[in-house]
Write a structure and sequence with these properties.
This protein is α/β, with parallel strands linked by helices and 143 residues long. The chain is 50% helix and 12% strand. Helix 4 (62-67) links the parallel strand 2 and strand 3 (74-75). Helix 1 crosses helix 2 (12-34).
Length: 143
């Protein structure tokens, strides 16, 4: 215990940085546990589509969407989504909506917009299309 006190006394800036990192990790964990928006893996996505009529909304650029996408997914433009224009998804408001982006990073902001717009259950494919392809799951192409 004395070593910790000595370290904190000798390195106050490092100690503060360490406390901030721990705080951020704990806050992130609590947010993910109690958030209305959940991350799912490719297998869970497949089950939700098959059992709960989930709708897959792909927010990647149209060129990437046309090159290869998950079967029956709908393209949602990021620009429209950032403006909370979800006209394409309105008829699916009571169904689970699964957002898919390239790596799973961009979808969280749009997922929050969907939840604020009244969509009942919103999910994000963890790892995005990258995780789908890594799992060796099929893609469809064309329009």
């Amino acid at each position: 215990m004395e070593q910790y006190i000595e370290f904190i006394g000798n390195h106050p800036i490092l100690s503060i940085i360490w406390l901030v990192i721990v705080f951020m990790l704990i806050t992130g964990w609590f947010k993910s546990k109690f958030s209305a928006i959940k991350q799912i893996n490719p297998q869970q996505l497949t089950l939700m589509v098959n059992r709960e009529s989930a709708v897959i909304a792909d927010i990647r650029p149209l060129k990437d969407f046309n090159t290869g996408r998950i079967a029956n997914s709908v393209h949602l433009s990021v620009e429209k989504a950032k403006q909370s224009d979800f006209a394409e998804l309105e008829k699916h408001k009571n169904n689970p909506i699964i957002l898919v982006c390239a790596t799973g990073m961009t979808a969280s902001g749009i997922a929050n917009n969907l939840a604020k717009a009244g969509f009942e259950s919103v999910f994000i494919l963890s790892g995005g299309m990258q995780s789908w392809q890594t799992a060796g799951l099929p893609l469809v192409s064309g329009r």
